[in-house]
Write a structure and sequence with these properties.
Helicase, Ruva Protein, domain 3; 8% strand; 5-stranded parallel β-sheet; 4 domains; Rossmann fold; Zinc Finger, Delta Prime, domain 3; 19 helices; globular
Length: 425
Amino acid sequence: MQQPLAYRMRPTKLEEIVGQQDLVGPGKIIDRMVRAKMLSSMILYGPPGTGKTSIASAIAGSTKYAFRVLNAATDTKKDLQVVSEEAKMSGTVVLLLDEIHRLDKTKQDFLLPLLESGSIILIGATTENPYININPAIRSRTQIFEVHPLTPADIKKALDRALNDKNKGLGDYPAVISEEALNFLATATNGDLRSSLNALELAVKSTPKNDQGNINVTQEIVEECLQRKALNSDKNGDAHYDVISAFQKSIRGSDTDAALHYVGRLIESGDLVSIMRRLLVIAYEDIGLANPGACQRTVAAVDAARQLGLPEARIPLANAIIELCLSPKSNSAMAAIDESLSDIRSGNYGDVPLHLKDAHYQGAKKLGRGVTYKYPHDFPNDWVKQQYLPDKIKNAQYYHPKENGRIESAFKSQYTKLRKSAGHQ
């Protein structure tokens, strides 16, 4: 039985990887590891189809190490022992361990000494946040890298390669794919290259040749193979992102009906991932401190939508969207952190005041660290006048509160009172 196109097109060297150039591009961290032959175990986390397995495969191919793939949830300790024995006999083995967040203690205890010795280079793959879902003992022995959804340009590059590759791809098929169909394949899977490649293979192999002997793959055929409608696609592939942009701007502008219209278009195209991610951004960027409770409820709605999946996911999402539209708005928190980051990136910061420096180690007091620090809980109302910012920027103000809701109005009152008590104007 022939393996799926996405499997056959898996890269065998770093140069073949599309996307993730911040990790595998020339001079970047994984490229440096491979060139220096100083591989360390790592965890790759990100959405499905974004290249985690491809990176592991390319690392193994570029270093000529044996490459093995196991699943932490379904493969046993005995399977790990087989890989361990192979490493003892033939040298280092690169092991891709999928769903590493589901690694149990027995398998973990078996793996740890192998990671310490370097006989196995572990590349863990997960869609879950490793800082929350992976055991600290594994985390401490690995580097953690985040992989991101591929751009439409990345996916088109991979699709073109698959269409022209006569050895592993579809180069022996007389396929002619329309630009609209290619753009739709590149945008409709939300950065999931695996889904795009497998849909392309189904489209090519299930379409009969025409009278000229060609296999014409149209947008309608791709829609059928992906089971998604091209409501948000145009000849340039931009309209999908235009709808996402209009969705956020409608909520920011408090137009409930427009927001529901645009999210309806995203739902019809099956793009649940973009809806959930955008809603989380909107909640904290556009509503923020004007209604923190709405932000929390949006997180709960997104979590419910993720567990339910479409079509039921539309219900908690609609609840969140309507509340965000009708909520007071404030971007003061985002503006505050961006202003702070601007100062730091321009070099406008100073040394941490001596009384705030860590004083928990022997000899710290001799260096004057923490000696004059005032513990706020020892004072009335748990507050005492004390400088916290470095001398260079001691009067800096980043947060400029708004009064667009009852909650942030209260924050403004407290913030203003505290700044005045601290001696700021």
